[in-house]
Design brief:
Two copies of one chain form a homodimer. Chain A has 298 residues and is mainly alpha-helical. Chain A has one domain: Farnesyl Diphosphate Synthase (Orthogonal Bundle), CATH 1.10.600. Chain A contains 14 helices and two strands. Chain A has a two-stranded antiparallel ribbon with strand order 1-2. In chain A, a hairpin with a 2-residue loop joins β1 and β2. In chain A, α8 packs antiparallel against α9. The longest helix of chain A has 28 residues. Chain A is globular and about 50 Å long.
């Protein structure tokens, strides 16, 4: 990749991340607002240092179709609330039992299990509250955003469904198509929905929405493969969570080996970029993001 | 109370409950739809035999303001999904650690903690998916329903907020105003929202909405006091959960004694009925429901 371009996209992502963080700051109740314990827990996890990939995809797609401004930013930030809810619940002892998340003790390690469960519930709910705030975009579109988000979280091809299949597959050797369906649901659905929400908020045509869906789907899968590879290749310091602990989980490197997995991720990124071919230069940032995601070190 | 009237309201509630159950049957994925384990868990808890109070309040208020039909029924059923989510999560070992719910083993006892956590997440999400289904009512109203529901679940005076304060007050002697604020949030918020959602769906005026809010608020608190009283007075068989286990929890009978608590509930019901005075005979069913709630045996 062109090093100049890489600096440029990295700087761009930093700027966007700061905008998203500013909006999350405005959405979340203050730490001392009663009941303070849960509000501290919400902020602890949301501001533990995520990449804000999902909001940034939403913003970038929205921009491509002509939406921008504060409304789009609020919708984008809602996606991060959903993502953070899923991290908190996934880390719970009864689920993945992870003590470390983004380099810090996970929510239940700091606040206890009860508050971690409730913090997840609260963030999921707050996402729906934020995205349904009156007057963001024409109400028909906004209702569609709510529905899109709910579907991405649900049991039918959404995050919860993916987590269930993942839990039930742990310890066994998953076939390639099972692995792909787990990832498509557990990680892919929200990434795809993030891209789609940008298009829906902007009132994109159904054709436009289809292109963005294809882009989001490929990017989501590539991102997950890159994540699996980081677990094998990355250092604990860079990744910010325990690495190598996917040992009994179905992963791409385990199933296909490191090199084949890397090529699969690269091909998916090429396909994602291809899905936006009709948008020429205007979709350049979205292509850069796709490339950036599989080149990242954490 | 007039015995003839009591029979009549009981029959009416049975009919309404059956309608709500039919709608829940249509909303929930089939038991054998993959991933089947979670769909079994959702149905297990939803069809464990609730009174469907929240949906029925929504239907009755909707009817008062001229809404009816399949759209209102779907919105009403969504409220039961939210209620069931909260029961599953509240029963978890890390929270209230209840082995029994509605006379049956609680979700985590049957399906394990991981699936119970995810089943709660799924029901909460499914509620938002159902209530945002395109075309139920004019989209501006529908968006407001989503927002209303999210607020009722959230940390600011909603169910999660109430549960947090309740957890933190356990074992101590709560003052009356703390107890009331716990109940207003933990149980009251969704009951109030249920009544409000019927009015919002029907496009009621802000004045109408204010009357219904007052009714819902009083009914919600009366219902909780009746629940506390059942815990003291009821038999385990009738209540369907362990009774007397509120021993270290702040409750009305513990704070005010049984007789004063009963009078408080009766006064609240009278106030709830009074809030609907302007609607005369048309609000008779809502008044009957309020009376019925504190006369119930389970």
């Amino acid at each position: 990749m062109n090093p100049a371009l890489e600096v440029s996209i990295a700087e761009h992502l930093d700027t966007e991340r700061a905008r998203v963080d500013g909006e999350l700051e405005r959405i979340l109740p203050a730490e001392d607002e009663p009941p303070a314990s849960i509000h501290r827990a919400l902020r602890y996890s949301v501001f533990a240092g995520g990449k804000r990939l999902r909001p940034i995809l939403c913003l970038e797609v929205g921009r491509l179709f002509g939406a921008a401004g504060d409304s789009l930013l609020r919708i984008a930030a809602s996606l991060e609330l959903v993502h953070t809810y899923s991290l908190i619940h996934d880390d719970l002892p009864a689920l993945d039992n992870d003590d470390l998340r983004r380099g810090k003790p996970s929510s239940h390690r700091v606040f206890g299990e009860a508050l971690a469960i409730l913090a997840g519930d609260a963030l999921l709910t707050l996402a729906f509250e934020a995205v349904s705030q009156p007057g963001l975009v024409p109400s028909g579109r906004q209702l569609r955003l709510v529905h899109e988000l709910a579907h991405a979280v649900g049991t039918r091809g959404g995050m919860v469904g993916g987590q269930v299949v993942d839990l039930e597959t742990t310890g066994s050797t998953a076939a390639g198509n099972v692995l792909e369906s787990i990832h498509a649901a557990k990680t892919g659905a929200l990434i795809r929905a993030s891209a789609r929400c940008g298009a829906i908020a902007a009132g994109a045509s159904e054709d436009g929405l289809a292109c963005v869906s294809a882009y989001g789907e490929k990017v989501g899968l590539a991102f997950q493969i890159a994540d699996d590879l980081l677990d094998v290749l990355g250092s604990r310091e860079a990744v910010g969570k325990a690495v190598g602990k996917d040992g009994d989980k179905a992963t791409y490197p385990a199933l296909y080996g490191v090199e084949v997995s890397q090529r699969m991720a690269e091909r998916l990124v090429a396909e994602a970029c291809g899905a936006l071919a009709g948008y020429g230069e205007r979709a350049q940032r979205l292509r850069e993001i796709a490339h950036f995601l599989i080149a990242r070190q954490s």
